Structure prediction request, 275 residues.
Amino acid sequence: MTTYAIGDVQGCYDPLRRLLDKVKYDPNEDQLWFAGDLINRGPQSLETLRFIMSLGDSARSVLGNHECHFLASARGHKKAHRTDTFSDILDAHDADQLINWVRSLPFLHQDTSIGYTMVHAGLPAQWSLNDAKRYASELETVFQSELFDSFLADMYGNEPTQWNDRLSGNKRLRFIINCFTRLRFCDEHGHLELKEKSAPSENTRHLTPWFEVSNRQTANDKIIFGHWSTLGLSNKNNAICLDTGCLWGGQLSTIKLDGSEKIISLDCDGSLEPY
Prediction:
């Protein structure tokens, strides 16, 4: 059996199927990990979601920021953007089933037998992997409870920017979800910087990618993530980014989690122009 981790699909169903053909994926033998952002912006969100759901236990995914935005829109807490492409899901005859399946996804997936953990965006330096698992579970419990809608209504925002064990309520949950689904950079004080989306460069020299922050508690843990198409394929400090910008005309990429860490990529036509 081979486990393949795949970067952000974002509704690019046809490239996904071509990539699986390229690696000769066998759903009876292999397992797929999806690093979140399964849907939205691409042309076939409904087909993508139904396909991954149909794989059952052969696929594992974590929630990305686009799934969270989809859920907030589906529950009436956020208006869809003009670039959103999940109306076909909301209009589908099985919309309730699809929404509930997305809602049930975790924020962190780990397999100790192969030694990898997957999140969509990142982890703050102060958290150990056990901390991250505990906070992911905390957030997942809220997503399955009667507090779900009250949190979604208060989910958006960039504050607080620093972790504190004394954080409580929606402020605590907002920090947690921002790490799992939005984090790219931290500033010189270790605070989350959530506005900058570019690749590390001279223009961002005052910022540090989350996986390069000094004294990061997960520095010895292999972390798979996506979310950062401007960073692209990257393997530094045990943090492996797989978002290679299929949506923007880049590639859709997968890594074999069999010890080889072999990367297989597929060129994509792209559905949107970068902005």
About this structure: The two ends are 39 Å apart (CA to CA). The chain has a mean pLDDT of 96. The domain at 3-267 is CATH 3.60.21.10 (Purple Acid Phosphatase; chain A, domain 2). The chain has eight helices and 13 strands.
